[in-house]
Write a structure and sequence with these properties.
about 0% strand, Helix Hairpins, mainly alpha, Four Helix Bundle (Hemerythrin (Met), subunit A)
Amino acid sequence: MLKNLITMDKDTLKYSKVADKFHITFKRIYFYVAIVVIALVATIISSVYGLSTMYNKLYHMNTDQGELRINLQAFTKSAWFALTTRDAGTREAQIESFESKMAELKQNYADLSKTYHGSDMAKVQTDLAQLESESARLSELFSKAHFSEDGQPDNGQEIYDQMQLNITDVVAALTEDTKVISEDAQSMAATTYRLVLIVSVVLVVISLLLVLLMSLFIRDARRKLIYVITKPVNQIKAAADQMSQGMLDIDIEYKSGDELGELAADLNESTASIKEIVTDISETLNRIQNGDLTRGSNRPELYRGDYEAIRDCLAEIAAKLSATITEVKDSSAQVSQGAANMSQGASDLAEGATDQASVVEELTASVNMVNEQTTLMAETAEKGERMAQQGKADTATAEQEMTQVTAAMERIDKAAKEIKGITASIEAIASQTQLLSLNASIEAARAGEAGRGFAVVAEEISELASQSNEAVKNAYELLNATMQAVEDGNRVVLTTQEALKNLEESVNQVAEMMRESKDMARQQSNSMEEINTGIEQIAGVIQNNSATAEESSAVSQELSEQSEALNALIGQFIVQ
């Protein structure tokens, strides 16, 4: 029974609503507080009642009987003083005093009868009535008395006897009565004090016991309330912490019919639902990672409420990735085809550039040869010019040294033969130069835009070669004429003078032509150097083109391989 008073039923608290938990607990607390308050009020009422009784009854009772006794003494004193005094004024004053004291005694009795209702009050009333009668008799004796000059009443003995035999005895009886009343008042005061004290102590003990029981109950209720509230709260908090750290494999063991139990059940259900959604998202992403883009979520029915946006996003991701992969696949096929074509074109370009480089090397060698021959032709032309000058001098001296005609003719014949050989060489060089310029024009045409400048140079070389050929023909004709003249000179000595003059003119022409041939040879040499420089530039360009073509071929091959690898990667995806 006591245990039920100071403890709460844990199951009742556990399966009650949170508000009911506090309602039940505080209802019991209010009950204990009410009992304690009642006990305290009873203690206060008892104390106040005791104090009121002691003050309003016992205190006034004791005071009234005390005043009664005091007034009795004053009555007796005034009566004896009136008897013994010799002064008439004093005697009159004392007589009035004891008569007024009698009225006060009657008032004291009336006041005492209000607070004391014991049996002694009847005796007091009787004695007081007798005292009143005896007091009236005494007043009558004083009123009948005649006083002498020394203040002695003539009925002094009678007054004395009245005082001694009647009034004193009645006063003594009343004094005894008041003593009895005083003892009764003290006894009643002690009893009331003990009763109030016992009642107060009992009520205080009961209040303390109730406070102790209430404290024990509050302690037990606090502990059990904390348990039934903090246990699920701690479990829910731990579950929430795990959820905040990304762990969804949780199970709240707390089961109850209150809001916390419902919250735990809802949280279990929510985490289970979220776990299923996360599992589905993981499986969906793994499937997408493995290349399956045919659909979004595997279990779209799991996504409710705000989770529908995730489901829609997964479906949209799969659809967009599928479309993107399809487009990339088509583009990759086109890139692969283009890379193959580019690789073939780059290979053809590299082969053509290689062939062009070979042709340019051959052309460079030919031009170098022509350049050397042109230089040799210039030197030969210069030598011919010197010989022509010498022939001119010889022709001039031939007029004076006719005697040496034969020797001079021989030298002329020899020089003519040498000139003929040189002319033949020049003619061969000119023909070779014209052939080389023709080849250079063909190669310049093949080079396209890059060979346009080279074509111009080749045309100039061809023109120079034509001029050289023409000059050689002229020189050859002159030499033939000279040879014919020499032969005629041998036959016709008489016409030597005229022939020498003609020879001088011819030699002058030959010298001029040789000079021009020398200048043209120099120009041809310079042009060939420029052609050689241009060919070297063309060779550099062709080599660069060849290297670029090879790099393009390698890049195209690598692009083709990467395109094939990209096709292989894209082939792993399964699109819609």
